Structures are given as C-alpha cells and as structure tokens.
Amino acid sequence: VAMPVNYRTPSALDLYPVDGVRLGVAEAGIRKADRRDLTLLSLAAGCRVAGVFTANRFCAAPVQVCRRHLELGNDVRALVINTGVANAGTGEHGWQAAVETCAAVSQLLGIGDRQVLPFSTGVILEPLPVDRLFAGLPRCVADLRADNWHAAAHAIMTTDTVAKAASRRIEIDGRWVTITGISKGAGMIRPNMATMLGFVATDAGVATPLLQELLAQAADASFNCITVDGDTSTNDSFILIATGQAGIEFADSAAPGYQAFSQAVVAVAMELAQAIIRDGEGASKFITIAVEGGRDHQECKCVGYAIAHSPLVKTAFFASDPNLGRILAAIGYASIDALDVDGVSVWLSSAGTEILVAEGGGRAAAYREEDGAAIMQQVEIGVRVSLGRGQARATVYTCDLSYDYVKINADYRS
Prior knowledge:
Distance between the termini: 17 Å
Number of helices: 11
Largest sheet: 7 strands, mixed
Helix content: 25-40%
Radius of gyration: 22 Å
Number of strands: 18
Structural class: alpha/beta
Strand content: 25-35%
Order of helices and strands: EEEHEHEHHEEEEHEEEHEHHHEEEHEEH
C-alpha cells in the first residue's frame, strides 16, 4: 500500500481542543459498513464562520446550501459532514437531501435550520441515503466532545490513506490562543478557492469581514497552491471558525498580535494542504515548484501549475528519470505572453543540494545527467524556475503520478 510521503497524523493528544467547538462521529453505513462516515461539529453561540467553496460549476447541493446559509447570517451553530456519497450531480433531490439534513440536525440541537452547514464528500452522481444519515445523527450528538478532533479527522476520509490534522498554540498579550484543523483529500485535487474539505477553528475572536479576509489569505497560501491531478472537485470547501472564547478579539488587521495570529492560521492551513499532497493518490514523492522572476503572481502560478499538471513531468518524477526537457515544454505552453525563453533558468534541488539544469534557452553547460538522476531519486524534490522578466513569485505543491494512481481511480467505486 502506498504510504504518504513524510507525513504522519498527529496523535489525539497533539490536537488541542478549541473552546466553543465540540465534535462527534458515528458509523452511519452511508456507503460502506463499519467505518466512521458521519461527523457533527456543534458550535457555541457567538462563533463566527467564514467559508470558501469550489469554482466547479457542477457544485454539489451541500455547497449550494452552505453558501445560502452563510448569506443569510453569521450565527452558524453546527456543521455536518458525511463521506461516501458526495451528493453532487443529484439535482433537486440532492438539494432536498441537504436541506433535510440541516433540519434533522437543527431539531436534535435545538437551533435553526439555517444555522447548520452541510458537507458531503465521496462518489458523484449517487443519491445521498438520508435515512441512514438521520439514523446516525443521534450517535454523533451522544459522542460530542471538545477533544474529538482526532476521530473527526478519520471520519471525513475517503481515498485518503491517513487522517490529516494540525494544531498550534500561540501566546498573544499574555493569553493562549489555539488553532486546530482537519482536512481530507487525496485525488481530484486542483482546488480553486478551496480544498476538498478543510475545517479550521480558533478560540480567538475575529470580526466577520476580517475572518473572511483571513480565510482567503490562508486559502491562497495553502489549498489554492496544491494539485494532485488537475481535477477540481464538485465539493471543495474550506471553513474557518472563530469562537471568541479565548478572551482576545481582533477587530481589524492593525490589532496588536494579529500578524502573529494570522501567520499561525496560515501555517495550519499550509500543513493541512501539504498533507493532502503528501497523501496524494499513489504518491511516492512530494514536489515543490517555485516560480520567480515573473511579471505578476498569476503568471508565476500559471507556470507552476503547467509543470505540476503535466503527466509527462509527473511520470518522469515517479520513474526518477531526469527527462527534464518535459519541464521546459510545460513552461513553454503555459500561455505566458511574449516569454523570452533565453531568460528562463531551471534548477532541481533536494536536501540542500541545488543544481542548475537549464539556462539561456537550453541545457546548462555544467549540468550532468547523473546529478539530475540523483536528485530525482529523493522523496522530497524542489523545482525552481526563474522567468527572468520581473519580481513576482509563486509556489505550487504537487506529487508524482504512479501506477497506483490509476489503480485507485479505476477501482474507486468498487
């Protein structure tokens, strides 16, 4: 079985509870028996919630309901997450199933329907078995605990081989602030304003407009910089919850301590996003593609994604074959206006060693194939590209493409 690249799920004790958030999980048998597949997050009154969602036009019913409920107000009190069935491509019935799920949760917790946000992940084009979901909800409620992040990280998995979680504590003005999060995803990952599923909570208080701004900043630095296979899912959602229970409140970005706090939130999001790539379906290598010297950030990201999405580049990394002309080809078709290839340089690196592979439109004079091959054999590899036309930069994280990726996705529904 493929193992994630240099990633291990933190232990339950390493995941700090966040005051104001309780989590409960259950085995509801939504798609398979004997697996945790239903998760409920219960939020204390006064929490603020921000969300970003998939750019896929076939976005799932739960995403549509989440957007609607967040537009109606910011007093969210519960999140419900099922795995196994994505409830996407399910039309009017799918919308109804998502709305009924919210109603079932609201009755159990004594809150309003629109105070519930629903999330689903799994197979697209299949109806959500709501009767099983409803039957599992009371067990989630009975299981609600503040220290249940570890179980929740496992209960939101689909093709993931490991659960993904991250947690930090930082001191601000003599008070401790906690940030804890979980994510899931291993394939169909090319987020566009969000990941497959990511949930991060903090006990700091953050004003609603600032929370949305922070979420966008965290998403752009993390989940919007990763790709396993270039496919954008129908259900991508990334949620940030601020409970305000730590007794510290950030009204705007100039507030004392906010810079340190926002950096910690971004760091948690990056850890969760990178864990998704380290556990990419069939992945055996973790690859960081840093593009610099562009005219703007977008052009750098475009080049990064062109390299990261190329099946030829990804299979060369899997085979440890320094067939690096494939990287030049990808840079060349990234639709960068008037790119002067003579100004482009490419380096390969691993474990502190960096070698120049290409410059001045061709192979670097000092480059030796055996040096390239030695780096390609490592499990953590860096590709650095300079476009030589500006000051902008961007980084994209990806993995190689192995036989296992095809096997996992050929057998996905069985």
